[in-house]
Amino acid sequence: MSPRTNKPHEIVERALALSRADGCVVIADEQSTANLRWAGNALTTNGVTRGRTLTVVATVDGREGTASGVVSRSAVTADELEPLVRAAEAAARGAGPAEDAQPLVEGVPASPDFTDAPAETSSAVFTDFAPALGESFARARAGGRELYGFANHELVISYLGTSTGLRLRHDQPNGTLELNAKSPDRTRSAWAGRSTRDFKDVDPAALDAELAVRLGWAERRIDLPAGRYETLLPPTAVADLLIYQLWSAAARDAAEGRTVFSKPGGGTRVGDRLTDLPLTLRSDPHEAGLESAPFVLAHSSGDDASVFDNGLPLTATEWVREGELKRLTSTRHSAALTGLPVAPGIGNLILDGGDETSLEEMVAATGRGLLLTCLWYIREVDPATLLLTGLTRDGVYLVENGEVTGEVNNFRFNESPVGLLGRATEAGRTEKTLPREWSDWFTRAAMPALRVPDFNMSSVSQGV
Q1: pLDDT at 79
Q2: DSSP class of residue 250?
Q3: Which tens digit of pLDDT belongs to each residue from 6-23?
Q4: Main-chain phi, psi angles of 190, to 5 degrees
Q5: Cα distance between residue 284 and residue 178, in whole Å
Q6: What is the gyration radius of the CA atoms in the chain, in angstroms?
Q7: pLDDT tens digit string along 236-261?
């Protein structure tokens, strides 16, 4: 029997009916993707995929507490459903009491479309985009540059059912476009990316024009040594840094003295001022254009998520308000331990509070400094300060007297996003952006460009 023979809500109901545990949570994720890839100004591949993943969480009450077991499998057939439920129950019975155990969530109104069939994406999502991309290939070819990249659209429909009566659904579209322009000899490269829900708001011609300008800047090459430079970080780079900051902002870790958000002597830094700029870092599941799940969907437990919180409603949350740290991510369990409000993670991130200055206007106001394109290969060096290291990529440009005068070599950097916020002297206009490093995991972001007077380029990199 095909894994898609049964409707997702029927699979959820059947798994709940099969459960013999004290509590049960079932998540069915229906996924479909469509993609295009191109190289050297020509389309190379395209395809459409579909799949289903079923996650069962069993909870078993015991004298010492409640244990949980989680099992996830893809392409589950009707015959495999009961063994999957039994495997989750066996995992729970073989585990010790779950530290994050809480009563399963109840009392959340059912989604009105819970029993509806899942929507699917298809190559039709590229109906307008693909011809415009083809026209960009022709322009690039005539201009002596080559375009490489890919477009991916994914639609995940999540059905959540619990033994406490929750019946919730969320439809999550997610599109990414990454475009590289290269000189024919491959010595010059420029990148641009966009996040989109439906590919109706991306313009390949505009991106190609932007990349053509950057390749032109790179015709003059200037070598610079490592050091601290006034640096303009574009929205994509700011997003990559602040997403990692959010991932590192678990309340319990901070309360236990293990992170940059730990207060010396005990407690957390909630209430501390992180920046003198009036910046607000926030998440909102209903943010226009960046919509994400309005309830917790946790396929496993960790420092900042708990399977016991599945279905918990999410609301707009300010992590930093006008420069002051207001919230750290917390489950119901970690909130009780730390005395902080419950604040689960949300699937988008917005930084606003800057002025309406564009990145181009910030360049025009720069005496001498560097303009970055993006960051990549970001890794943590020291959790106590959230010191990160990584590389610049696809274009670092020298700005002199308000104009870009050439491309400089790439660098390895060593910086903390918390430190950068504290030292930033200007924030521009907030705009939707694609975080390049984390685009496989987190794409819904809106950020301004930041001016940092002393960004630490710790060494020269030989990368393009």
Answers
A1: 86
A2: B
A3: 899 999 999 999 999 999
A4: -140, 150
A5: 25
A6: 24
A7: 999 999 999 999 999 999 999 999 99
| Residues in the chain where the model's pLDDT stays below 70 | 1-5, 463-464
DSSP β-bridge partners for residue 415: 388
Alpha-helical regions (H) of 171-223? 204-217
Give Cβ neighbours of residue 65 (< 8 Å, ≥ 6 apart). 97, 98, 101
Cβ-count burial of 182 within 10 angstroms (0-12 exposed, 13-18 middle, 19+ buried)? buried
Q: What is the DSSP string of 210-248?
A: HHHHHHHHTTSEE---SEEEEEEE-HHHHHHHHHHHHHT
Phi first, then psi: give them for residue 51, nearest 5 degrees.
-170, 170
Give one DSSP letter per residue of 408-442, joined into a string.
Answer: E-EEEEEE-HHHHHHH--EE---EEE--STTTTT-
Tokens encoding 254? 């901070």
At residue 3, the pLDDT reads 43
Domains in the chain and their CATH numbers? Answer: 8-214 (3.30.2290.10), 220-464 (no CATH)
* CA pseudo-torsion sign 127, 129, 130, 132: positive
Task: State residue 2's pLDDT score.
Answer: 44
In whole angstroms, what separates CA 264 from the centre of its chain?
30
What count of Cα atoms within 13 Å lies in the side-chain half-sphere of residue 460?
8
Residue 227 is predicted with a pLDDT of 98
CA distance 47 to 246: 34
Written as one letter, the residue type at 128 is: D
Task: Say what the pLDDT of residue 77 is.
Answer: 83
What tens digit of pLDDT does each residue of 30-39 get?
A: 999 999 999 9
- Which DSSP helix (H) or strand (E) runs through 70? strand 65-74
